[in-house]
Write a structure and sequence with these properties.
CATH superfamily: Vaccinia Virus protein VP39
Number of strands: 7
Mean pLDDT: 87
Number of helices: 8
Shape: globular
Number of domains: 1
Order of helices and strands: HHHEHEHEHEHEHEE
Distance between the termini: 35 Å
Largest sheet: 7 strands, mixed
CATH topology: Rossmann fold
CATH class: Alpha Beta
Helix content: 40-55%
Strand content: 15-25%
Length: 212
């Protein structure tokens, strides 16, 4: 996911709206090629949290904590559990949580999501997935287990740079991910316990609502 200077300007507008100086995080992400939520996805995250007012949020893929902070700031009563496999990014995220004064409502677990998820038992009202795209299928069953009644799962970058809908000029090394993402989308739409739509936000955002 590429972050342009126009994206940065727009994200700074969002940062001002949230009342927290996210510009340092944006600059760090831009300079170090660390993917963070696209501006429109970040705004949607804030919107859905404000609308749903979840008690518990689970996030897969913390990075430097950008989207984590946005969700925590959107609703002061929410608690967030976030999983990050990169220990260096996890440490940076922890510092950012302190700066944002939300560290008391965020639990960061450092490890591989495939290994962490089976050990979680709490139910979550909102789950945000922004991790390794090729692993979404592996996350799927465990996340359904952890999703509360009428809960929502947001799957970011679901269209993988647009290659999922148009594989023209897809490099060989990316084809496996493209095929796996297509398979995953088919699984979502065939699942009768979830109602899923794909929104044209960022690199494609799938929203799955748990139906009983």
């Amino acid at each position: 996911m590429e972050i342009t200077r126009n994206d940065i300007k727009f994200i700074r507008w969002i940062a001002h709206k949230f009342g927290y100086p996210l510009d340092e995080m944006e600059k760090y992400a831009y300079e170090n090629y660390i993917p963070i939520a696209k501006p429109e996805v970040a705004d949607f995250l804030s919107f859905i949290v404000k609308l749903k007012k979840p008690n518990n949020i689970l996030e897969i893929g913390t990075a430097i904590g950008y989207s984590t902070i946005i969700m925590a700031k959107a609703y002061s009563e929410v608690s967030v559990v976030t999983i990050e496999r990169d220990i260096n990014l996890a440490e940076i995220a922890k510092e950012n949580f302190k700066k944002a004064k939300v560290e008391d409502r965020i639990e960061l677990i450092c490890g591989e999501a495939q290994q962490v998820l089976p050990n979680l038992t709490k139910m979550y009202d909102l789950i945000f997935v922004d991790a390794a795209k090729g692993q979404y299928i592996e996350f799927y069953k465990e996340l359904k287990r952890l999703l509360s009644k009428e809960g929502v799962i947001l799957w970011d970058n679901i269209l993988y740079k647009g290659y999922v809908v148009n594989e023209k000029n897809v490099k060989h090394k990316r084809r496996t991910i493209v095929y796996r993402m297509r398979e995953f989308i088919e699984i979502l739409y065939q699942d009768k316990t979830l109602y899923t739509v794909i929104l044209p936000l960022g690199d494609g955002l799938a929203v799955s609502f748990k139906e009983e």
